[in-house]
């Protein structure tokens, strides 16, 4: 059977690869948040006993990969590919993790959308019979991200209300077509949109147009509407971006109502003082591989459209006056 | 017909997607080098009239994409995906190029191996019927790379003999299965290898083990040997890395002899004072989409194994004492 391409951007998988094992890991702040009970492993020390947050991040990522493999009852040797990406310059967390895993590696970068870029690509590769099983993973770390994109936390720079708090954690999934588990049935790869936002303290606003574009494109390509999904999950728009997203979607004549949940807006409690909410590659990854997958396995969700968003910029592009572009990729996950 | 997977790492494409149009662009130094006559567009000003090398790099990339589309007699609207990656933090050259092209975007990162990661992945996506046509591109810029990975050129830091000179340029290819042109028949995705090299002035040595590993793995997976190829091209090992690569391959009982050409070692003339040779994403990309494709179209090459190598590190990982890991991806291109 041929893969069915709908419209320009959406792919419908013929064999619907399964998430045969997945795992999430995060720090104490995430454990105390609203989604704490959905995270498989909570660590007390966000530095993992390491001298730097960069070294800690790759430990979290490696641990998530090992836990996902164990849950799938498989090993590194069973994986044909490891697809990984993260926020750190030159995706060093993923590269060093790939070195330690020894699995052929495809490095990706979609900023905080990386988990869905990876799941979509991994599903495509398995669906097309180019691999039996692939491992997809991503990570982020509050301290490492702050000092790379904004200021070292030691400077104690006051956060703005629109600031988001990078999730310290990682998530990994094993995709395979020969086993059971939640299925990835479609993927919509997104375009890069730029509405001229220039503040690295307002990334939700920079990502909202791309999220709305990918969502509407998905509906148009597939002929579906919000009613066809139990949940429409966005990655890390957080409080500010979420409002803009809902507004943009409304202008395209779709009403999301209670169907929509944004992981960035949901992950922390108000008293945790996290500005507009969570962000980072691990934010949407924990939402999808923690919350969505667990709710599916418990029969509470049947069909979810998961959209992860990424802000595409660097401190250099920002200092040179470039605006912050956004991207969003989507996958449909079915129980 | 099912895609044929050989061994663990090599994929044989069932429909052999074609390079239906490609283009290369580079600066004056590359124009004066050994491969100058193979580069489609040579620019006089490596800064492209821009205030910064980062902004110049994305102009080179965008121009290469437009030229490749024009050669294929296609437009952005005919492309289902743009697969791009580059060396700059958060792959901003590719992201901004994706924004300006308006094509759904898969951001990748394989350091200087990005062009082959992209060609392999693009061929897989077209081969699997997930897209009719995809655009694959990469870029690098000497000034932008120096100041990001080592020192700003204004400091006039003396280069070491093992230093490589980042190629200022870009290359792009349109892959499609319904047309004619050089075919991509196989891809071998590489593992990350780390032999403990710690100097960012010695990247050829850091990449040589991965190049040898991917080459030997390709031979084992496919049952081929150097005799089956007219040319075995490596990306940017340059003088130092090339020697180590040949040594490692010899230890695995393969003799490359005159079959082997390294683009990094070949691209500049000795009198151009470029240390050990060229590097950067555009180095192997110009070797493959400039030299190899042109020689094929003139009937001088029939079957080429092209291996692009990447050094996986960041200045931060380097300052934190981490060694520099390497990766290499390979594709087979046939006339």
Polypeptide structure, described:
The structure is a homodimer of 335-residue chains. Chain A is of the alpha/beta class and 335 residues long. Chain A has two domains: 14-176, Stage V sporulation protein AD (Peroxisomal Thiolase, Chain A, domain 1); 183-334, Peroxisomal Thiolase, Chain A, domain 1, CATH 3.40.47. Chain A is 34% helix and 24% strand. Chain A has helices at 28-31, 53-71, 92-101, 114-127, 142-149, 203-222, 238-251, 263-266, 281-297, 315-319; strands at 4-6, 10-12, 18-26, 41-42, 81-86, 105-107, 133-140, 164-166, 169-176, 183-188, 231-234, 260-262, 277-279, 303-312, 325-334. In chain A, the strands form three sheets. Chain A has a seven-stranded mixed beta sheet, sandwiched between helices. In chain A, strands 4-3-9-7-5-6 form a six-stranded mixed beta sheet, with helices on both faces. Chain A has a two-stranded parallel ribbon with strand order 8-13. In chain A, helix 6 runs parallel beside helix 7. At the A-B interface, helix 3, strand 6, helix 4 and helix 10 of A face helix 3, strand 6, helix 4 and helix 10 of B.
